[in-house]
């Protein structure tokens, strides 16, 4: 099924407005280093939210904190009305919160379907008993098919990671996170290493996820991608939120431009602002994804 057939909707479409993820005064400290300092960030259900910032700003640390891979030194997390603060990573995943990693870490000796199957299975003691009575992996297999179909890569199911392009490997990484049918998926640099065409296709697929009940938090350095697909954007610098708003506001925010450039001349800053505006305008003029009858890759 092509992206167009899966019902992509343009960036800036309506969202439910209900808070799915609410992070309040989130702080994370490593020794004497404060990686996050009282970060407030909310993700509305049905939205695609961007989290950007220069290297070392704390973006991946925020994902780690939300998904339970690093402990909080302060603040609270709520997800779908449930308090996640203090819960281990596996319980957060079972609540419908999943993530990707910057390093794909696909199993090279497993094909794509098997890589997704590992993520889709969540064995518990009663599953063992159930398999004795009624063997099968129906739910896990359905999750694999679901993840592959959403990303338009069902044709890659029997191929091995070393046979894939970088763009295809990135899509497999996202599909693996989707195999467990999450409510919210946090994507850490999914466009890293992709060319412009691959990045555009990724953006098309990410928008389509919203129509399937999946909310997305996107961390990426590809400003063209973030500005073109996100409904809302948060900007981190030195572990603190310095800006928040829709893409039209973020691309003109002086604090955001300064965070990426550091102390530069007014001339350089103005040129950078013009470049960001140009990227956003080009993204807005571009079609949301492949149209019916057009190739998808």
Brief write-up:
The protein has helices at 59-67, 89-94, 112-120, 125-133, 138-150, 166-178, 196-209, 223-229, 247-250, 254-261, 266-285, and strands spanning 19-30, 33-44, 48-52, 74-79, 82-83, 97-99, 184-188, 215-219, 232-237, 240-245.
Write up what this structure looks like.
The structure is a single chain. With 297 residues, the chain is of the alpha/beta class. The chain is built from 11 helices and 10 strands. It has helices at 59-67, 89-94, 112-120, 125-133, 138-150, 166-178, 196-209, 223-229, 247-250, 254-261, 266-285, and strands at 19-30, 33-44, 48-52, 74-79, 82-83, 97-99, 184-188, 215-219, 232-237, 240-245. The strands form 2 sheets. The protein has a 6-stranded mixed sheet with strand order 6-7-8-3-9-10, sandwiched between helices. The protein has a 4-stranded antiparallel sheet with strand order 2-1-4-5, with helices on one face. β7, α7 (196-209) and β8 form a beta-alpha-beta unit. α7 runs parallel beside α8 (223-229). The longest helix has 20 residues, at 266-285. The chain is globular. Mean pLDDT is 80; it is low at 1-16, 123-128 and 289-297.
Strand content: 15-25%
Helical stretch tally: 11
Estimate the mean pLDDT confidence.
80
Q: Main beta sheet, described? A: 6 strands, mixed
> What does the radius of gyration come to?
19 Å
Strand order of the largest sheet: 6-7-8-3-9-10
Cα end-to-end separation: 12 Å
Structural class category: alpha/beta
Task: Return the string of H and E elements.
Answer: EEEHEEHEHHHHEHEHEEHHH
Weakly predicted, low-confidence segments: 1-16, 123-128, 289-297
Helix content: 25-40%
The rough form would be described as globular
Extended strand count: 10
């Amino acid at each position: 099924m092509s992206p167009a057939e899966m019902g992509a909707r343009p960036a800036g479409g309506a969202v439910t407005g209900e808070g799915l993820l609410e992070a309040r005064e989130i702080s994370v400290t490593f020794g004497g280093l404060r990686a996050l300092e009282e970060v407030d960030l909310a993700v509305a259900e049905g939205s695609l939210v961007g989290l950007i910032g220069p290297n070392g700003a704390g973006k991946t640390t925020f994902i780690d904190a939300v998904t339970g891979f690093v402990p909080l030194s302060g603040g609270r997390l709520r997800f779908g009305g449930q308090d996640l603060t203090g819960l281990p990573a596996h319980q957060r995943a079972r609540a419908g919160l999943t993530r990707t990693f910057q390093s794909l870490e696909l199993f090279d000796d497993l094909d794509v379907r098997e890589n997704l199957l590992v993520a889709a299975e969540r064995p518990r003691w009663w599953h063992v008993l159930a398999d004795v009575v009624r063997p099968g992996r129906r739910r896990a297999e359905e999750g694999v098919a679901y993840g592959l179909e959403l990303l338009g890569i069902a044709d890659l199911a029997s191929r091995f990671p070393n046979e894939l392009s970088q763009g295809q490997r990135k899509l497999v990484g996202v599909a693996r996170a989707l195999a467990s049918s999450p409510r919210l998926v946090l994507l850490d640099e999914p466009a890293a290493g992709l060319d412009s065409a691959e990045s555009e296709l990724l953006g098309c697929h990410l928008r389509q996820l919203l129509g399937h009940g999946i909310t997305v938090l996107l961390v990426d350095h590809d400003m063209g991608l973030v500005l073109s697909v996100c409904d809302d954007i948060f900007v981190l610098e030195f572990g603190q939120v310095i800006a928040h708003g829709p893409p039209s506001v973020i691309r003109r925010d002086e604090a955001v431009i300064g965070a990426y450039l550091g102390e530069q001349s007014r001339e350089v800053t103005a040129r950078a602002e013009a470049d960001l505006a140009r990227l956003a305008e080009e993204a807005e003029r571009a079609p949301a994804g492949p149209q019916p009858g057009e190739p998808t890759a």
